[in-house]
Structure formats: structure tokens, C-alpha cells
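Researcher: I'd like a structural prediction for the single chain below. Treat it as a standalone chain; there are no partners to consider.
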Amino acid sequence: MTQKKLNIAIIGLGFGAEFIPIYQKHPLANMYAICQRNEDKLNEIGDAFGVDVRYTDYDELLKDPNIDAVHINTPIQAHAEQSLKALRAGKHVACTVPMATTVEECRQIVEASEETGLTYMMMETVVYSREFLFVKEMFEKGELGKIQFLRASHQQEMAGWPGYWEGLPPMHYATHCVGPVLALPKAQAEYVSCFGSGRIDENLIEKYGSPFAIETCHIKLKDSDLSAEVTRSLFNTARQYRESFDVYGSKKSFEWTLIEHEDSVIHTGEVPSKVKIPDYAHLLPDEIASFTTAGVYDSDDNQHLSFIQGAGHGGSHPHLVNEFLSALTEGRAPYPDARESANITCVGILAHESAMAGGKIMKLPEFTLK
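Model: Treating it as a single chain, here is the predicted structure.
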């Protein structure tokens, strides 16, 4: 059986360049076009990867009738506007995290996706990382027993990142820790309560009015006896980079390693044992399986900041691409779809509001629930 390949356009070629060869080799995709405002950078990447269709203007790209879907990898402040423009132009959307920076923007994207019938997927790396896939496999096999509690953290030092990151409220970029605690039990957040702690440098506070060094949020899961806890820090907190995910079950529990590159731990009853996390390339088409362990940014002299700090995102990139393309081809919703992406993103947005209000309980809006 033959099927038409999907013409993909990638927007933003810093982190976004990582995905070009994955789409080029995926059997369901044609890596059709790239977009970058800087023409020199655009041509450098286009020449390096052999992509002939190039745009410096996003609005002009959206007029191209050959494009089926766009993959957005631009600064976070642009995500909502660019996603909405694409959906309204008749294009499916994959967008790097977070979905948006306000609850209202999330609502507009959900409505646009549902009104047009087009697919929106937030490309949340952790829920396709080898660590998450390992725990998910344990859970689906019944090895964990009943899930009793979930915890995740994302701690990093963002000094030296582009200026728009400076002073960002920690929970405004919380999807890497919120995503896994909702994805494993296939749940949505119902309400949150969050506390801020400590204080960042005064010059960092000015931009967003957010004083906290660390924000810690409790999440009540809808239609469930479960709650989860997530912790986020961005500045002025001593800690090796860590995206962690712990799950406590009635039979077994999984705890992420405290130190990068060391082994994680499984507790069976009260007995701990270290475990080496396997790769999950076998879940992918053969053509892109190698990208779980190597990509564009994998050499010492050619590394993107998100890769240097993010441990290669757990081999998630080809899994994300495969989920997006498979969902489009099969006519089903990807994970996370628009509502699930909004629920994950709004947890962080509302958690920061809660922290600024001394821990006030904040309910997730109805449009984020299923």
C-alpha cells in the first residue's frame, strides 16, 4: 500500500535543526521547507541538509499550499501566535514547549484546533524519553501495582541563555516535569496549589515580576485518588541539571538517579536495586531508530544549550516525530493533543499565579479537560 508523504516545514533552525534529518528519513514524511529570519543562517542550514524550499517570512510560508504541517521551534513568546496562524492557514501543528504563556492563548489554540479539525501536538520531550518509556512499560505490565504518588522536578541554571529567559517564573516552563506525572496515569490536572521559595537576583526579578528561586506545586488529578508534586528552578539555586520523574507504586517504585549518568533505582517492597535504563529505538521505524542516541547536536564542537544541559532529551526526538506523523497518517489524536497540551501548560501558568497568591488553589479551566 502506498500513501502520500506529509510535507513538513520546520520553523526556527537553532534547536529546530535537530529534527531535519529525522523528518528526512522518516517513511511518512517529506522534509519540504525550512524557515528562519536570518537569511545567512537559513541558507547555511538549507545547504547543509539539502532542503531547497526556504522562507525568511513565516506568513509567506503559510501561504504555500504544498505544506501539510509545521513544526515550530521558536522562542516561547512566539509559540501561541505562530500556532494559531498555522491552524488558521490550514496546517497541522507540532510545537515545542510550552504551548503558550497565558491561559487565554491556550484556550484559543484548543478552539482553533477543534474548529478546523486540524491536529495540534505539543512536543514534550520527557514523555517520550527512554526513562519515561521504561516506567510506562513497567506500569503497563502491572509491575508497579497501583500507582500511589508521582513526583517530578526540572532544575537548571539558565544564566547565559538568551535574554528573554532571564527572570522567567519557574513554573512558566514546567512542562518537562508536569508532562510525565499526567502522562503515566493518562490523567488531567483538576486543580493546583503552589508555593514559591527563596529569591533570585534583583536584576532578574524586574522583567517578569517573579521573585522566587524555586516553585513547588501540588497537582490534584481529575477523577482520581492521586496527587502529584513538581518542583522547578531556573536561577540562583545550586544543582546539577536534572529532569527527574519518580513514581511510587504498591508493588514497585522507580526513582530517577540523583546524579546524571548514574543508575536509577527500583524499590521492590523495601529492597532497592539499581537499574540501567534501556533504549527504546525498537519502537521506531528502522529508518529513524539511530536518532535515539545520536543527532545533529551530538559532538563536542556542535552542541545546542538544550542538549548540553538536557542529556540529549532522553532519545525522545524521533519518538516525538513518529507520534506526530503516525497520528496524522492514522487520523487519530496524538499525545499530547491540544486539550492535553493545554492542561499540561496551564498547570504551570496557574501554579505561578498560585505561588504569587501564597498557595491559593487554582482550578484548571474546563477547556483543558476531557
